[in-house]
C-alpha cells in the first residue's frame, strides 16, 4: 500500500464526517509546522488509516533476514553464466547472492565473484573480494586456489612482496593435501615463486618501488576509489564563508532577487566555481544492485549491509559510514519506504527529507526550529553544506501552498516518521522529527536536485577492460536525488551561465558563459529558452517555484532554437563549429579509459564560445553558440560520470 492509497482513504473518511471542509479550516489556522504536525497527530481517523500499513511494515521489519537458500540459488545461477563467459550477468547474480547471503554463503560468493573480476583484469576488486571471502570463513580445503589467485593479482599490480606471501601460503596449504593433482599443482606454484623472485630482482635493479602499503581491505578500497573520476578542484581558493564555492563567488542578499550568488571577479568559461558534497542523498530503488547506497557511485561489486538484504555499498567504508550516520535507523525498512513512496507525488522528496532528518542531531533540529534567523543574516555567516542549519533555512515557499497541499504534506511527514519509529516500538512518532520532515517537504520541491550519471548499455559479454562505444549509445540516467544547499542558492535563468555535473553524490558547477565581476551566477531549473516557449516556461516556473522569470531571454522574448538566426556574419567560425560538432558525434568513448578525446573536444568548444563572445559584431542568440554550448555541456557530463548500466 503506497502513500497515495492511504491518503485517499483519509480523504474519504474526512468527506463522511464534514465534507473535509471543517477539518481543513481548523488546520489552516495552525501557525506553523509544529502545530500542523500536532493537529494531524490529534486526528483519530489519520491514526486509524495508518494502522494497517504500519502493522505490515512492522511484520516486514521483524521478519526480514538473510536467506542462505536464496543466496545459494543466485550463486549457482551466477556460476552458470560465468561458465558461459557472460561476465556481467554472472556478476549481477553474484551481487544478488551477496545481498541476501551470510556466513559461508558470503565467503563462497565473494570467492566466485573474485574469479570474474580476475578474468576481466579488475585486479583490485578481485583482491578485495578474496580478502572478504577469507574474512567470512572460506573453507580451508579450498583456500589454496584463492591464495594463488590473490598472488596472481598482486603480481599483476607489481606488488612482489605481497605476491610472494600469497604464493607461499598457497604452497603451504597445498602441501597438506595428498592427491596427485595437488602434487602437480605444487610444481606450478614453486615455478611461480621462482619467477616472482626474479621479477622482483629486476624491478629493484630498475629502481621500481615495491609498495607494501596496499594490503588491507581499507587500503585496497582506497586504491579503487582513486581510480574513479574524481571531482575537479575549484579554480580558485575556497571562500571561507562559503566553503563549497571558490573565492570568486560570494553570497549576497538583494531586495528583488533575495539570496543569490555573484561573481567577485571575471570568470572564464570552463572554470569550476562550486564543488559541493550532498548534505543528504537517496538512491532510486532500481539502482540498488549497481550503485552505492551511500555515495551513489557506480560499483561493479557491491558490499552488502551486515544485517539487511536491501542495500549495497561500493566499499566497507561507505557501509560503515552509512550505518553510523542513518542506516541503523532505516535498516530492514528501506524497501518498504521505497514502495510506499514509489510513483507518489512528492514521494522522493519525502524520502530525502526523512534521510536528512535521520542524519541530523535531534538537538540541532530543536535549535534550528527555535532560533530561525532572517535570510539577511546569511551574508555574514559561514554557509557550510555539512551543517543541518543550511538545509533547514532554505526557502520553503509554504506561504504559497494551498491548505490542502500543506495538509497532505503534514500527513506524509507523520506517516514517514511513524514508519521509522517502528524499530523503537513507539506508538507515536517524534513530533520534533516529523516537524523537520514537514519543513523539508515544503522546501525540497524547489531546492532538491536530481543525481544523473551518463550510462552505457552493457551487453552480456562486456568486460571491465576498455571497450569502444559510440556516443549515440550513451544516455543520461537519473539515479537519485540530493540536497545541495549551496547549489540551491543559485537563481534561475532561461539562458544560464553555468551547468552542474554529478560525481557520485558530489555536484560540480562549471561556467559555460563568461561571467563578469558583479554578475549573478545563474542556473537553469529545467526550462531553457531554446527548447521551451516563453509562455510554457513562465507557467511551469510559477507553478513549481512561485516566481515570474525576468531574465534577458524572457524580457527580450528570444526565439526557440529552430527559429534562432544562424551566424552568417562569421562563416569561418560557423564552419569550424559545424566541423567540430560532426567530429564530436563520431567520437568513440572508451570505458573506463579514453577521456583525452573528450577533454580536447571541450577545449575546442570553449575556444569557439570565447571567440563568439569576444566578437562585438556577433549578437546573441545565434544557433552556432547554442551548438557549441551544448557540445561543451555533453563533454563535461561525459568527463564527470560514465559508467555501465546493466541491461538484460
Automatic annotation (TrEMBL):
Signal peptide: none annotated. GO terms for biological process: methylation. CDD domains: SET_SMYD4. GO terms for molecular function: histone deacetylase binding; N-methyltransferase activity; protein methyltransferase activity; S-adenosylmethionine-dependent methyltransferase activity; zinc ion binding. Residues 247-526 form the SET domain. Residues 292-331 form the MYND-type domain. GO terms for cellular component: cytoplasm; nucleus. Keywords: Metal-binding, Methyltransferase, S-adenosyl-L-methionine, Transferase, Zinc, Zinc-finger. PROSITE patterns: SET (PS50280), ZF_MYND_2 (PS50865). It holds the Pfam family SET. Protein-lysine N-methyltransferase. Monomethylates PRMT5, modulating its transcriptional activity. May also act as a histone methyltransferase. Plays a critical role in cardiac development. Acts as a key epigenetic regulator of gene expression during cardiac development via its dual activities as a methyltransferase and negative regulator of HDAC1. PANTHER family: SET AND MYND DOMAIN-CONTAINING PROTEIN 4, SET AND MYND DOMAIN-CONTAINING PROTEIN 4-LIKE PROTEIN. This is Protein-lysine N-methyltransferase SMYD4. The gene is SMYD4A.
Amino acid at each position: 500500500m503506497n502513500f497515495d492509497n492511504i491518503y485517499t482513504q483519509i480523504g474519504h473518511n474526512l468527506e463522511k464526517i464534514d465534507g473535509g471542509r471543517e477539518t481543513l479550516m481548523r488546520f489552516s489556522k495552525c501557525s506553523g509546522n509544529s502545530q500542523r504536525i500536532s493537529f494531524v497527530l490529534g486526528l483519530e481517523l489519520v491514526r486509524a488509516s495508518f494502522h494497517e500499513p504500519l502493522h505490515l511494515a512492522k511484520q516486514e521489519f521483524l521478519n526480514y533476514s538473510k536467506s542462505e537458500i536464496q543466496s545459494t540459488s543466485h550463486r549457482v545461477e551466477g556460476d552458470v553464466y560465468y561458465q558461459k563467459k557472460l561476465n556481467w550477468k554472472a556478476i549481477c547474480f553474484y551481487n544478488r547472492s551477496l545481498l541476501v547471503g551470510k556466513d559461508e554463503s558470503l565467503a563462497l560468493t565473494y570467492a566466485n565473484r573474485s574469479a570474474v573480476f580476475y578474468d576481466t583484469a579488475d585486479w583490485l576488486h578481485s583482491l578485495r573480494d578474496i580478502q572478504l571471502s577469507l574474512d567470512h570463513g572460506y573453507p580451508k580445503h579450498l583456500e589454496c586456489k584463492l591464495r594463488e589467485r590473490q598472488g596472481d593479482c598482486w603480481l599483476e599490480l607489481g606488488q612482489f612482496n605481497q605476491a610472494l606471501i600469497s604464493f607461499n601460503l598457497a604452497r603451504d596449504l597445498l602441501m597438506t593435501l595428498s592427491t596427485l593433482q595437488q602434487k602437480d599443482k605444487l610444481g606450478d606454484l614453486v615455478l611461480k615463486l621462482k619467477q616472482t623472485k626474479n621479477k622482483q630482482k629486476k624491478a629493484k635493479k630498475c629502481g621500481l618501488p615495491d609498495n607494501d602499503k596496499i594490503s588491507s581491505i581499507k587500503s585496497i578500497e582506497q586504491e579503487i576509489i582513486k581510480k574513479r573520476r574524481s571531482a575537479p578542484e575549484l579554480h580558485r581558493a575556497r571562500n571561507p564563508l562559503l566553503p563549497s564555492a571558490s573565492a570568486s563567488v560570494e553570497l549576497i542578499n538583494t531586495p528583488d532577487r533575495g539570496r543569490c550568488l555573484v561573481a567577485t571577479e571575471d570568470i572564464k568559461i570552463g572554470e569550476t566555481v562550486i564543488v559541493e558534497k550532498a548534505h543528504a542523498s537517496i538512491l532510486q530503488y532500481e539502482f540498488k544492485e549497481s550503485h552505492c547506497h551511500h555515495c551513489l557511485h557506480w560499483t561493479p561489486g557491491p558490499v552488502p549491509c551486515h544485517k539487511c538484504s536491501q542495500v549495497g555499498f561500493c566499499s566497507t567504508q561507505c557501509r560503515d559510514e552509512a550505518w553510523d550516520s542513518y542506516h541503523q535507523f532505516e535498516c530492514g525498512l528501506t524497501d518498504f519506504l521505497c514502495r510506499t513512496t514509489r510513483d507518489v507525488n512528492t514521494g522522493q522528496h519525502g524520502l530525502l527529507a526523512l534521510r536528512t532528518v535521520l542524519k541530523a542531531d535531534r538537538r540541532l533540529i530543536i535549535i534550528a526550529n527555535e532560533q530561525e534567523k532572517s535570510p539577511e543574516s546569511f551574508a555574514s555567516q559561514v554557509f557550510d553544506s555539512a551543517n543541518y542549519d543550511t538545509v533547514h533555512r532554505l526557502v520553503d515557499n509554504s506561504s504559497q501552498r494551498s491548505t490542502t497541499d500543506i495538509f497532505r504534506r503534514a500527513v506524509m511527514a507523520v506517516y514517514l516518521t511513524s514508519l521509522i519509529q517502528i524499530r523503537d516500538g513507539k506508538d507515536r512518532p517524534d513530533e520534533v522529527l516529523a516537524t523537520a520532515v514537514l519543513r523539508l517537504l515544503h522546501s525540497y520541491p524547489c531546492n532538491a536536485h536530481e543525481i544523473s550519471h551518463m550510462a552505457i548499455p552493457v551487453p552480456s559479454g562486456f568486460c571491465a577492460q576498455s571497450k569502444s562505444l559510440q556516443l549515440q549509445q550513451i544516455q543520461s540516467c537519473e539515479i537519485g536525488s540530493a540536497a545541495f544547499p549551496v547549489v540551491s542558492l543559485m537563481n534561475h535563468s532561461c539562458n544560464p551561465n553555468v551547468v552542474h555535473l554529478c560525481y557520485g553524490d558530489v555536484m560540480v558547477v562549471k561556467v559555460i558563459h563568461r561571467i563578469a565581476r558583479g554578475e549573478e551566477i545563474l542556473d537553469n531549473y529545467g526550462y531553457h529558452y531554446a527548447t521551451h516557449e516563453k509562455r510554457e516556461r513562465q507557467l511551469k516556473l510559477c507553478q513549481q517555484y512561485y516566481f515570474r522569470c525576468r531574465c534577458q531571454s524572457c524580457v527580450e522574448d528570444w526565439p526557440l532554437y529552430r527559429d534562432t538566426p544562424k551566424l552568417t556574419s562569421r562563416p569561418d567560425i560557423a564552419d569550424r563549429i559545424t566541423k567540430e560538432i560532426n567530429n564530436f558525434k563520431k567520437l568513440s568513448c572508451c570505458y573506463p579509459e579514453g577521456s583525452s578525446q573528450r577533454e580536447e573536444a571541450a577545449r575546442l568548444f570553449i575556444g569557439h564560445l570565447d571567440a563568439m563572445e569576444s566578437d562585438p559584431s556577433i549578437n546573441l542568440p545565434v544557433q552556432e553558440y547554442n551548438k557549441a554550448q551544448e557540445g561543451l555541456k555533453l563533454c563535461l557530463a561525459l568527463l564527470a560520470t560514465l559508467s555501465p548500466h546493466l541491461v538484460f
